[in-house]
Amino acid sequence: AIVEACFEMPDCGQVVLLPSGERRDKTIGLDRIHRLGLLEKLVQTVSIPERVFIDPFELDQPELTETYKAVRYVEKEYGANCRFVFGADSVATMATWHEGERMLQTLPMAVVPREGFAVPNAPNIIELPLQGVETVSSTEVRQKIAQGDDVGGLVCGAIAEYIATRDLYTV
């Protein structure tokens, strides 16, 4: 749903999926092959898959990643006319990140609403509307799977099947 909403943004020529690597504040707990495999399944489900690209930049970093480094990379690799998509829950903590205040003030963002978190009102931020879709973070999905909860209604069928057949995120 997020990728489809991105297609609706003005001047959206392509969507680049940049899976986050391991960070100080979050452990993904899944290897590169499965991270990319999940994204490949996602791309197969979108209406215009030829406009979606997967870039493993953060996954290929030898050290823990930080968002500001990914931002610099994307701007260099894809040009300065990019809009970065974050969940409102992530934006709520961004000020504590390295270069977070600068990103909050200047980085062009499309923010996905999340329950309990406001989308900031700033000139560089737009809300990415997702009508009729429950918005949950990937962290929440991983936690639900680890607890044995069904996530079929939270992720598309191809991704749910990929996760289940490989027994991912279980403890």
Can I get a quick summary?
The chain is built from seven helices and five strands. With 171 residues, the chain is of the alpha/beta class. Helix 2 links the parallel strand 1 and strand 2 (52-54).
What does this protein look like?
The protein has 171 residues and is an alpha/beta fold. It is 37% helix and 10% strand. The chain has helices at residues 2-7, 32-45, 67-78, 88-93, 100-106, 138-146, 157-165, and strands at residues 15-17, 52-54, 84-87, 109-112, 125-127. The longest helix has 14 residues, at 32-45. The chain is globular. The protein starts with a helix and ends in a 6-residue tail after the last helix. The relative contact order is 0.15.
Q: Low-confidence runs (pLDDT<50, min 5 residues)?
A: none
Query: What is the makeup of the main sheet?
Result: 3 strands, parallel
Total DSSP E strands: 5
Q: Describe the strand arrangement of the main beta sheet, using strand numbers.
A: 3-4-5
How would you describe the shape? Answer: globular
Topology, element by element:
Blueprint: H1 2-7, E1 15-17, H2 32-45, E2 52-54, H3 67-78, E3 84-87, H4 88-93, H5 100-106, E4 109-112, E5 125-127, H6 138-146, H7 157-165
Parallel strand pairs: 1-2, 3-4, 4-5
Helix pairs in contact: 2-7
List keywords for this structure.
single chain, 171 residues, alpha/beta, three-stranded parallel beta sheet, two-stranded parallel sheet, 7 helices, 5 strands, 37% helix, globular
